[in-house]
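#dry-run=false #mode=assembly
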Amino acid sequence: MILYDYVLSASCYKVRLMAALLGVRLDHVAVDFHPGREHRGLAFRALNPAGTIPVLVDGDLVLTESTAMLVYLAHGTAWMGGDTAVAQAQVQGWLAFAARLGASLGMARLHDMLLYAADIAAVRRDGVACLRQMEAHLVERRFAGAIWLVGDGPSIADIACFPSVMLAPDGGVSLDDYPSVRLWTRAVRSLAGFIEMPGIHRLHELKPAPEAV
Amino acid sequence: MTRAWVANGLSRDLPAGVVMHGAWHGQDLAIWRSASGQIAAWKDRCQHRGMRLSHGFVRGETLSCIYHGWVYGTSGACGRIPAHPGLVPPSAIRAEAFACCEKDGVIWVAPAGTEGDVPDLAGLHPVRSLTVEAAGIEAPGLTGMEILQGSVMIAGQTVALGLVLQSLAAGRTAVHALCGGGGDVVAVSRWLEDLRRRLERGVAA
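#status=ok
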C-alpha cells in the first residue's frame, strides 16, 4: 500500500497513525505540498482529480478521503467500533464530524502556518463550537465510566478526530478550556503503537527516564 | 481587592500523572499531580529557558520540562539537568511555587503563604468545568461574586447547584460546577450547556 504523504498534514498523519496502531506497513511517497504545491500539479491531478492529500493506493484501488482510508485499513477489526446499528451510526457521525474539524481547526492551522486565505475569526469560532460539542460528549462518556468517543474501546472515530484536535493550538485555538478532551487526547497517545508527528508528541512518561551515559 | 484563593478546575479533571495549565489573576500556572497524588501549582515557567512547564510531563513524583528535560520535584527544587548528569543542581534553581489545595473536589490556588480558608462547598459534588465567553456572566446583582449557590429546576428535579467562577480574561469566565447529592449529572451538564448559550446570547439565565 502506498500513501502519498506530507509530514505536516493532519489528514496524512491520521492514516499513518491508524496504520501504525494496526501494525500495517505503508510505503510512503512524499508530496511537496508546501511550498511546491505538487498536489495541484497535472501529474498529481491525474492520480487524484480533487488535488488533495493524502491518497492511498492499493493495487487498482485509489482512495482520496482520509476517513475512507481508516475504514479500509481497519475493516474487520475492533477499530470499526462495533457492528450494532447504533455503534456504526455513531462512528459515521464522528467521521463526518472530523470533516468539520478539518474545515475549522484545520483551516485555522493552514492559515497560521502556511498562509492560507481564510476568515480566521470565523474558522476559529467554528473550531471552538466543535471542541465544545466534543467536550460535552466526552463529559457524558466519562460520567458513564468511558473515555472513547464510541463504545468501550478506541475506534476509527477517535483516530479521525484526534489530529485536528491535537493540532488546534497551531491555529490559535487553545485546548485549555476542554479538560475531558485533554484526557481523551492522553488516552489516544497512550495506545500501544502510537506514533508522533511534528506538533504532536508522545507521552514521555510512558517510558522510564533515559539513563545517563 | 484581589481575591487570594482562585478556583482552577475540578480534581476529577486532573488525575495522577497529569499536568495542566492554570492561572492566578493573569499569572500563568502549571498545576500537576504526582503519581502518588500530591498536587502542586507553580509559575508556568522553567528556570532554564522559560518554557511553559504545563507543556511538560509527570514521571513519578517529578515534573519535567518538555524542552530540555529539567526535572523538578514536588517541592519545586530542580533535582536533575539531563545535559549535565553529574551535576547536583544548585538549590537556587527551583520552580516558583504557589499554594494549592483541594476541597470538595475543587482545586484552589493562591500565592505561597496565603492565610485563610478556601470557600466551603460542603454537600456539593463536582460535575464539570466550562468556559463562558460573555461579558454578562457577572449579571446585575451578581457582580463581584465568585460563587453562585442555589436551587434550580433541572429536568423536572430540584437540584442544589454551586457555580464557582474563575475570571480568565475580560469577557471569559471558567465556571466550575457542582451539584447536590443525587443530582443527575448528565442533566446538569446539559443544563450548563444551555445556560452558556443563553449567557452568550446576552440572555440572563
